[in-house]
Amino acid sequence: MTPTNDVERTGGEPEPLTVGLRVRIGQEEAHYGGRLVDGARILRLFGDLVTEVTIRSDGDEGLLTEYADIRFTAPVHPGDYIEATGRVVRSTKLRRFVELTARKVIAATDESPSSAAVLPEPVTVCTARATTVVPRKTPTAKGGR
């Protein structure tokens, strides 16, 4: 049996598997002048999402093999809250193709070191596509686990 998180739509088709997470970017993650956070921080979030996708769809972490069309579209600063989502857009026997989006939902402000503001609309900070490979299912031996 393969675990799944798909929800059935009206008409009998399952909704695409979508996973998400929200994190606060810490002060220690300022990497560049202007207190900018490096793009690799967002790619780590995307990697976590792709891992969750394959755990939910296949019961295994899988192996992230490719990022494509990575676009950084807005700066990220310490104190920002980033909400990232991954959505499976296509599946084959051994691969999952995932669209990834990271949005800033709360932004640090300059009013004081601890001030922040909820944004009226989320700001997209990065988009990408990823491909992950899942292990081939092998039959278990008699008496095995």
User: SSE string, helix = H, strand = E?
Assistant: EEEHEEEE
Strand order of the largest sheet: 1-5-6-7-4
Bulk shape: elongated
Number of strands: 7
User: What is the helix tally?
Assistant: 1
Mean pLDDT: 86
Structural class: mainly beta
Give a description of the structure:
The protein is mainly beta and 145 residues long. It contains one helix and seven strands; from the N terminus they run βββαββββ. It has one helix at residues 39-58; strands spanning 18-24, 30-32, 36-37, 63-72, 81-91, 95-108, 116-133. The strands form two sheets. The chain has a five-stranded antiparallel beta sheet, covered by helices on one side. Strands 2-3 form a two-stranded antiparallel ribbon. A hairpin with a 7-residue loop joins strand 6 (95-108) and strand 7 (116-133). The two termini are 15 Å apart.
What key attributes describe this structure?
145 residues, mainly beta, five-stranded antiparallel sheet, two-stranded antiparallel sheet, 1 helix, 14% helix, disordered N terminus
Compact overview of the structure:
This protein has one helix at 39-58, and strands spanning 18-24, 30-32, 36-37, 63-72, 81-91, 95-108, 116-133.
Question: What are the SSEs and their pairings?
Answer:
Elements: E1 18-24, E2 30-32, E3 36-37, H1 39-58, E4 63-72, E5 81-91, E6 95-108, E7 116-133
Antiparallel strand pairs: 1-5, 2-3, 4-7, 5-6, 6-7
